[in-house]
Design goal:
mainly alpha; Erythroid Transcription Factor GATA-1, Chain A; 2 domains; two-stranded antiparallel ribbon; 2 helices; 2 strands; 8% strand
């Protein structure tokens, strides 16, 4: 018999009993399907080895551009 193990769902942060869920590591089928949808839509990506720094820099540039656009819209 497994010991009770309470964990949080990576999708919704709901605490559930890990060994009692047939959808683990998710709490429900809904959370499992949402996560799968993110993979299908390529919202999640696995970085290529050696390009991690480049991806971080690109994300930082995008964030800066988004911030600039947001700030410009405050003045109009």
């Amino acid at each position: 018999m497994n010991k009770p193990l309470k964990v949080k769902c990576p999708q919704c942060n709901t605490e559930f009993s890990y060994y009692e869920s047939e959808f683990r590591p998710f709490c429900t089928e809904r959370c499992q399907q949402i996560d799968l949808g993110h993979w299908f839509q390529e919202t999640y990506t696995v970085p290529e080895k050696g390009n991690v720094q480049e991806e971080v820099e690109n994300e930082n540039q995008q964030t800066e551009m988004d911030d600039e656009e947001h700030n410009e819209s405050d003045y109009h």
